[in-house]
Amino acid sequence: xxxxxxxxxxxxxxxxxxxxxxxxxxxxxxxxxxxxxxxxxxxxxxxxxxxxxxxxxxxxxxxxxxxxxxxxxxxxxxxxxxxxxxxxxxxxxxxxxxxxxxxxxx
Length: 106
Description:
The chain has helices at 12-32, 38-45, 49-62, 69-77, 81-86, 93-103. The chain is an all-alpha fold.
């Protein structure tokens, strides 16, 4: 039995609802851990809140929904992006070095 065969069979509606709930939980987790900066996420996982915002816009467009980046950022950040950014510390030299080392050659 393959690993995929162990996954319960879900209807498309069930899978969509589960995926949406998981996304909401991810947003809640990020909101509860605002001390984790975007650069930290980029260093560790190659994505950040800005990436999620851009993906939100791209997926909306795929479905014929007109959502701009500001609206997507409001959804992902839970606040206006300018407000979020104003409350975030500058990246440290160590963070910048780690980010540059990871993205070198990308």
